[in-house]
Specification:
Two copies of one chain form a homodimer. Chain A is 50% helix and 13% strand. Chain A is α/β, with parallel strands linked by helices and 428 residues long. The mean pLDDT of chain A is 97.
Chain lengths: 428, 428
């Protein structure tokens, strides 16, 4: 179960303001459930959990295993919602050093020429034993026309065709729209394997579709456990969403009070990328019509030594949301040393987890005294099931909170503006 | 030369407000030069450029070469200003894939047990040829008592002592205070090599001292060129700091106008970590007494697909600062393909740099029309000299801007608050 504690934030909000916001949250949840709000044609991220497609999970899982067995390198080619979810889950559940499977690289998420050029060189270099790297590529784009992703795919596809000739079609997997979009043309022509992005699921809500699940499976993570974690959260909140209604109401009241920044902070370096996923999910959903609390990401205690000063004493426009893991997932303890030259023997025998927990509690206390409202979201242990639950927790929170602002959580009209200007400048 | 263009921001500020802020900036620069402002005992970051220590540069450079020749892994053990500068420069100027020297790892920048435990396992694993990894460790801490760094150093030192016995002292280099601090005790005892952090240079201003320079040298970057880039910027701005005064005045006026967030954005993925360095430099300097514009970091066009919607149409409390590289540093061009299945043949023959530039221009136009003030900081090419110039540009800008707010740019009293609470909870 995901715990949500608004205790360190609630005291900053008057009862009247809170209960008014709570009413909005209740209405927002009704809108979601009844499919009566704006953008309600985009609620497929709920439907896939209400009615799991076990056959597809099985199919993705076995392709993941096939690729794990064969590939040295697996490239995820996508931008925004097409890679942030996979990256979040993979970073949360994979080793920091070394690897237990294919190296997973990301491409198609910017137009940096140096990055792609150096990636090409790297892919062409043989392994230490002199043999060529075995490379698989997953291109992820509903429309197939997103510039960043299409450009990288064009370049990488050419490399794979040079390396593998006709067999290159074995090395390329497309995740795209069922029928529409530019990728379907090339899939028909080349015979690439294909997974479908449901039409009613937007990019930032797509991590539990093949968009996220195939890369996650290639990383060796049990996607069935992940997915069914989300399913259990779905069922729980269909029954009782009190936690989420409180959180959404609180965040709405803080928004009304004029706070402009929400720092999503974790004390586990594994969860930094999850912060990036939440940043897109919330930011792209709420940031419309002049509204929203800007979501930003921090990793503590690292960033207490960069942003900590500002959070403690700078301009008072911040709130924080801590993403917490309660139980240790490492046994590392502090060793005792002779002479105690660094004065740390008082910690000897204690685990890093315990010390990190005290750092978190100290930070909660200090920032709270510095008038920063803090929401605490916690899971018991860091595993695929709980990450699945957390994913649905934040998807549902986003839907409720953004509806409660009176905004459509499922479109992104502003993203088109830079594209239009760019395409005009490119002479398209 | 670093170019600074406030044209896309100036129009949002009334003349009266701007000229009032400009006066404050002029006074702030006088305070810096005359050493009459609060915290003026911390201006060593200017003095080291006024009077370069060539002998020390030489010494650091040759140790860097020695380590490059011997080490497989080089660990930078430090937090905040003790690693962010080195990471910024190394990421800006190193290849994305593969390596041209020792692998550079970071430790001591958080209390994550899983990270450190997995690092230990990785360090102990032999190389592909079966031989042991040759590991060097640079611990960086003025006081030697910063918890995150001291804990990791205790653990890593034990590993090196097990691996190398008495020779471990050859593998450990300390960067610390001249005389005070806990590391000096262990240096005397063990005979570690030592570099000195000048007493009058604070952590976030220390990248051009041994703090940053040794790791940067180990990464194979010419530290003399980097350093003398900064020296030339120092001389230039001692002569004429008009650009910086304009920028500081503009940012002050935007601060007064109630904007709360400054998105430092680059279109070059190489420069993402430089954003992290700026975030600490500015954020920890300005975020006091309820003041400051919260600095946050984005990489475009990547984050146009996550934060772009909010920046374009969300709550209007943002400004942006673009860090720009004008000339291409990659020759990668778009290839032509038969059939034009992805409709990109209209770009065939054009460089990624050119397309990325159009993305930047389109973004500038779109965000500007969305009422976001944009400051553009640009360098001609991405190299060590220009990064050195950019470092001093932002150090000086920080000093001027923060003095113009009426705040001491050189202390960080708020960082102590979480530490105090944490140490109490740990029973120290």
């Amino acid at each position: 179960m995901i715990k949500c504690d608004i205790g360190f934030a609630r005291k900053f909000i008057e009862d009247d303001a809170y209960f008014k916001a709570r009413k909005k949250a209740d209405n927002a949840l009704d809108q979601l459930r009844d499919k009566t709000g704006p953008g309600s044609e985009w609620l497929g991220w709920r439907d896939i959990l209400a009615d799991p497609n076990d056959a597809e999970l099985e199919q993705i899982g076995s392709l993941g295993e096939e690729i794990r067995a064969k590939a040295d390198v697996f490239i995820v080619c996508g931008i925004g919602g097409s890679y942030l979810g996979a990256k979040a889950v993979i970073d949360a559940l994979s080793p920091h050093f070394g690897s237990n499977g294919p190296e997973i690289l990301f491409a198609g998420h910017h137009i940096g020429g140096k990055y792609l050029e150096e990636m090409l060189t790297y892919l062409k270099e043989p392994k230490e034993d002199g043999s060529a790297k075995n490379i698989y590529l997953n291109v992820i784009s509903k429309s197939g026309s997103t510039l960043e992703t299409a450009l990288a795919f064009r370049i990488l596809r050419e490399l794979l065709e040079k390396m593998y000739g006709e067999d290159s079609s074995e090395h390329i997997i497309c995740t795209t729209s069922k029928e529409r979009g530019l990728l379907n043309k090339v899939i028909d022509e080349k015979g690439y394997r294909k997974f479908i992005i449901p039409e009613d699921v937007g990019g930032r809500y797509s991590v539990l579709t093949p968009v996220g699940l195939l890369p996650i499976a290639v990383a060796g993570i049990d996607i069935r456990t992940l997915f069914y974690g989300a399913v259990s959260a779905y069922n729980q909140y269909e029954d009782n969403a009190e936690d989420l209604l409180e959180y959404a109401a609180l965040r709405n009241a803080i928004h009304e009070s004029g706070k402009t920044i929400d720092v999503f902070a974790t004390f586990e370096p594994e969860l930094t990328s999850l912060g990036g996923w939440i940043q897109q999910l919330l930011g792209e959903s709420e940031g419309k019509e002049g509204k929203g609390i800007f979501p930003t990401v921090a990793t503590f205690s690292t960033d207490l030594h960069s942003l900590g000063q500002f959070i403690q004493q700078g301009q008072r426009s911040l709130m924080e949301t801590f993403i917490i893991v309660e139980k240790p997932f490492s046994k590392l303890r502090v060793n005792e040393i002779e002479g105690d030259g660094d004065n740390l023997n008082y910690l000897a025998g204690r685990s890093f987890h315990e010390i990190n927990t005290k750092a978190r509690e100290g930070t909660t206390e200090a920032h709270s005294e510095g008038d920063v409202p803090i929401v605490r979201i916690s899971m018991e242990t860091l595993n695929a099931e709980n990450i699945g639950k957390l994913i649905y927790f934040f998807e549902l929170l986003t839907g409720i909170f953004v509806y409660s602002l009176g905004v459509n959580p499922f479109n992104q009209p502003g993203v088109e503006d830079y594209k239009k200007a760019m395409y005009r400048l490119l002479g398209k």
